């Protein structure tokens, strides 16, 4: 039996549980929880984020833009993890970077994080939703598995006739609603061996804390591609105070959303470096070191706008991270289905979408531009310039927890909305 994972700044993740074919707690838990006790799980999530992103790039031989939501996939895999036993549980634990964190702490942390991220900044719209669809004919998922994911992950649980084409429409309609119609389809058809879908959707809509001046968008500037070519694209300009640092290898700037609880970090390689040398050296520890060096200074920021979407099957990446057993006949999901159900994961699919412009990221409402002027002193020293006119790396994260919602790289801001598929 197969089951699929569908993880989805917009992400849908789908995990599919399948039958392989023969070959020729309580709802008040968050009232007793403190983020202080979840630091090891959130650190595990961020270690997972960097490892997964690097594996994604290893399997991509193109120069297409990349975007994943590691948090979406992490929630998705965590729901499936509740159904594992034996070596499958051990391998998924290692892939999730959990070390000695137990399942109850994982669920408690994830459940609290889902609630916290959705409410922490009233000026940013963030929603995280989970769902389980299972085939209502034949063997059924164990009630304990459905309950733990319903309680901690607030998963919508639905038993459906997988032979009815309308079930595909119901799943896609739910995905479309959760992503505000930015991702309208995650399932095309339901193969007869698929018995369960685990779906996570993440939606992020943040206005910049201080918007770029829409009157200063330059549509004639060049963005220099890695192959030496250049494209003309829209650039946004802002001279303001940012948390910023630079060294011989890179420049980093922190651009806050809303009330400052969510931020985008843009990492721009220097002229003597590039993304191919920068990204392999990045991990949670090195990023935190860079962030600790940020200083509040006036910066002349020149940032392109961009919009694109990606679709990736994460099976190869997750196999490389050590959980390949979950995708084969030796998988043990006996806490999801009874021990004789012979279930395995067939796919982990993710589709992502992002749009960044002068108002913000995925901003649907207009924002009043805030322009800050400066009077030059007698001995004026020009502010540092961060001209993001070559391939760059970015992260969208929450400040208090450090949770990484999205990681991406932009190789060509003019790439547009064409779906980039990988895996």
Describe, in plain words, how this protein is organized in 3D.
- By secondary structure, the protein is α+β, with helices and mostly antiparallel strands.
- Helix content is 25%, strand content 33%.
- It has nine helices and 18 strands.
- About 9% of the residues have low confidence.
Please outline the helices and strands.
Blueprint: E1 2-6, E2 11-18, H1 39-58, E3 66-68, H2 70-81, H3 86-95, H4 103-119, E4 124-135, H5 143-153, E5 156-160, H6 165-178, E6 194-207, E7 218-224, E8 230-246, E9 250-257, E10 262-269, H7 275-278, H8 284-292, E11 295-304, E12 306-313, H9 315-323, E13 344-356, E14 360-361, E15 385-387, E16 392-398, E17 404-410, E18 419-422
Parallel strand pairs: 1-6, 1-13, 4-5, 11-15, 12-18
Antiparallel strand pairs: 1-2, 2-13, 3-17, 4-6, 6-14, 7-8, 8-9, 8-11, 9-10, 10-16, 12-13, 16-17
Distance between the termini: 22 Å
Percentage of residues assigned to helices: 25-40%
Mean pLDDT: 84
Sheet-strand content, in percent, reads 25-35%
Main pleated sheet: 9 strands, mixed
What's the order of the H and E elements?
Answer: EEHEHHHEHEHEEEEEHHEEHEEEEEE
């Amino acid at each position: 039996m197969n089951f699929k994972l569908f993880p989805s700044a917009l992400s849908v993740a789908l995990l599919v549980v399948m039958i392989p074919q023969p070959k020729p707690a309580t709802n008040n838990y968050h009232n007793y929880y403190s983020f202080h006790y979840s630091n090891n799980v959130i650190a595990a999530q961020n270690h997972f984020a960097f490892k997964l992103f690097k594996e994604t790039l290893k399997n991509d031989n193109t120069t297409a833009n990349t975007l994943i939501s590691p948090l979406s996939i992490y929630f998705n895999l965590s729901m499936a993890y509740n159904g594992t036993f034996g070596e499958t549980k051990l391998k998924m634990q290692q892939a999730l970077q959990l070390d000695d964190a137990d399942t109850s702490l994982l669920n408690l942390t994830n459940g609290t994080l889902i609630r916290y991220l959705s409410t922490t900044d009233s000026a940013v719209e963030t929603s995280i939703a989970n769902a389980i669809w299972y085939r209502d004919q034949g063997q059924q998922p164990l009630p304990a598995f459905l309950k733990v994911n319903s309680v901690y992950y607030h998963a919508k649980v639905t038993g459906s006739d997988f032979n009815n084409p309308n079930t595909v429409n119901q799943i896609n309609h739910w995905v479309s609603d959760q992503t505000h119609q930015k991702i309208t389809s995650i399932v095309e058809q339901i193969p007869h061996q698929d018995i369960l879908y685990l779906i996570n959707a993440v939606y992020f809509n943040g206005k910049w804390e201080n918007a770029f001046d829409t009157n200063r968008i330059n549509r004639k500037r060049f963005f220099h591609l890695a192959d030496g070519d250049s494209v003309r694209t829209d650039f946004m300009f802002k001279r303001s105070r940012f948390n910023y640092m630079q060294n011989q290898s890179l420049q980093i700037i922190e651009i806050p959303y809303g009330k400052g609880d969510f931020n985008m970090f843009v990492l721009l390689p220097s002229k003597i470096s590039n993304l191919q040398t920068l990204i392999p050296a990045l991990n949670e520890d090195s990023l935190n070191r860079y962030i600790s060096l940020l200083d509040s200074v006036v910066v002349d920021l020149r940032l392109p706008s961009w919009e694109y979407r990606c679709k990736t099957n994460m099976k190869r990446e997750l196999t490389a991270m050590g959980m390949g057993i979950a995708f084969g006949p030796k998988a043990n999901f006996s806490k999801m289905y009874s021990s004789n159900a012979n279930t395995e994961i067939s796919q982990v699919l993710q589709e992502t979408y992002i749009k960044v412009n002068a108002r913000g990221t995925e901003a649907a409402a207009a924002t009043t531009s805030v322009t800050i002027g400066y009077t030059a002193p007698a001995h004026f020293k020009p502010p540092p310039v961060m001209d993001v006119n070559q391939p760059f790396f970015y992260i969208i994260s929450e400040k208090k927890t450090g949770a990484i919602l999205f990681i991406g790289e932009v190789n060509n801001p003019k790439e547009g909305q064409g779906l980039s598929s990988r895996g």
